[in-house]
Every structure is written in structure tokens, then in C-alpha cells.
């Protein structure tokens, strides 16, 4: 989950799709 958030380009260490997109 952490890797996904960072990989998605999200600022949070978890919700990548929520903070990345």
C-alpha cells in the first residue's frame, strides 16, 4: 500500500489513487 501511494505519485504514504489522482 505504501509503495502504491508513492508510486502513484501521491503525497500520502498510502492513498495513492486518492492523493495521486
UniProtKB/TrEMBL annotation:
Residues 1-21 are annotated as: Disordered. It comes from the Eukaryota. This is Uncharacterized protein. It comes from Nymphaea colorata (pocket water lily).
